[in-house]
Amino acid sequence: MKDNGGKILVMVLGGIIALAFIFGGLFISRNFKKTDKAITKENAQETLAKYIKHIEPGEGTPVKGAVEYSGTDNTYQELPELKDDSIAVKETTTRFAEIFSSSEKTGEGRNGFLKEMAEEFNSSGVTVDGENVSIRLRTVSSGQQVDYVASGKYVPDAISPSNDLFVKMAEEKGAALSYISDSLVENYAGLVMKKKIKGDLKELYGAADVKAAAQAVSDGKMSVGYTNPFSSAAGLNFLVTLLDSYDAGNITSDKAVSAFRAFQKNIPFVAMTTGQMVDAAKNGSFDMFVSEYQSYKSDGNLSKNYEFVPYGFKHNNPLVYVKGGKGENAQKILEEFAAFVKKKGNALAKEDGFNEKPEGYHVLSTEYSGSELIDAQALYKENKDSKPVACVFVTDVSGSMDGEPIQMLKNSLSNAIQYINKENHIGLISYSDDVTIELPLGQFDMNQQSLFKGTVESLTAAGGTATFDGVCVAADMLIKYMKQNPEIKPMIFVLSDGETNEGYSLSDISPVMKGLKIPVYTICYNGDFDAMQKLAGINEGVSINADTDDVVYQLKQLFNANM
Predict the structure, then answer these.
(1) Tens digits of per-residue pLDDT, 96-113?
(2) pLDDT tens readout for residues 109-147
(3) Spatial separation of the C-alpha atoms in residues 482 and 477, rounded to whole Å
(4) Which CATH superfamily is domain 78-187+316-351 in?
(5) Beta bridge pairs of residue 58
(6) How many other CB atoms are found less than 10 A from the CB of residue 154?
(7) Which CATH number applies to 4-22+35-68+384-562?
(8) Quick one: DSSP state of residue 137?
(9) Which SS3 state, helix, strand or coil, does residue 364 take?
(10) Ramachandran angles phi, psi of 383, nearest 5°
(11) Domain 4-22+35-68+384-562 shares a fold with domain 78-187+316-351
(12) Which homologous superfamily does the CATH classification assign to the domain defined by 188-314?
């Protein structure tokens, strides 16, 4: 970690479930017949009821605490220090320019266009003012690029978000920018839908586009998945296109808000990344989902079994100079790099699936300002919960959390308060050898916030680690709560540190959770991240790997998207 503050922020949210011994037989047997096959909701509830009888959760005494309201957005303070593992291409000369780029251009294989261009540029011996120059390329999401340059916390020499929407927002937030290249490579956003779905949309609504898809979702006839509009270019593009389809040219009008709320009633979750969205879709969760054309073309299974319906603004992947960056005369280096990409990159771009316009693409006719785009994000945050969320936080208070880790976890959950909409319903569980319901579910008004914070601050650590018993109790709480509040959307958050060595196993609860269809979100630190992904993947939850310094920022974005 960079310093004590950074260490605290990472470890607070971080410690989660090291499941290295899940398959080594270290769980206490419960002697119930287990199966990996999906079971019905009714059978899942029956099995869960048997589990709860054996767990016998206790009840704690909630304690009130003081909730502080700063009235400010802490996004900039929570931005992580950038680590070396975000560098996709390292500079090879003393004089260089640093570029932040979105991940579809800095990865491996067909997602490595800009990475390969930077590597080739660095080995080509380009000079500026008689000096050899090179490029440092970092992988930073489009939304996070805006936060870094607007805050001044880390200012690269240039950014290359997926589209111009993020450039406009960065300028609106005070960043001094100028274009080096309008487009390094072209891409397009779109809805990837099953072939039959495209035909059904045309039959039912006369078209297969965002407007028709949105109406089908609002009518409860189809399902769609999209990505977080605060960080994802495809997600923001979809949000703006959707709002524009409700009221063209006026994306924050009462008409647009009303229609958006009706649409959101049938949205099960919003993914953090396009990769997670694709994985969920492959599990059969959605009739259609957002993606980019290059990713669609690169995946043989998608292009074989699904149709791509383009929408919104072109993903032109500009290269934009940031005034105040660290490089000496970086603008000249960036100009040389843009020229190099234009001259050398056409063949590679085509090979990687870029620079190909999908059939049926029509650019959105209305241009929106940075201020309007920021307002659209705010509209999303305020109105996405047409169905209130009921969330149980499941916290590890085992012996491995004693001392600094438990204090960090307390700080983490106290920080979460400001990002949870007050219309939602929150409860709290702690677990070690046993499970305790520390705070029953209740609407997250000022009183519940006070009880949540005070109860969190009173947690102490000791004993073993019965993680999956905690998940069972949380699910049972939600099922009972939903009987009195049928409109809520349930979810579970698990925050833990240590090996799961007590109670039920992942294989015990997986079919139950699948039958209940309650998503579980996990934050995994220094543990078996693959196992945590399996737990989160049962019902398309999100698993955050807290081994990276950006866990606090990711968690904030996750709350913005889903709570």
Answers:
(1) 999 999 988 999 888 999
(2) 889 999 999 999 999 999 999 999 999 999 998 988 999
(3) 9
(4) Periplasmic binding protein-like II (3.40.190.10)
(5) 436
(6) 18
(7) 3.40.50.410
(8) E
(9) coil
(10) -120, 0
(11) no
(12) Periplasmic binding protein-like II (3.40.190.10)
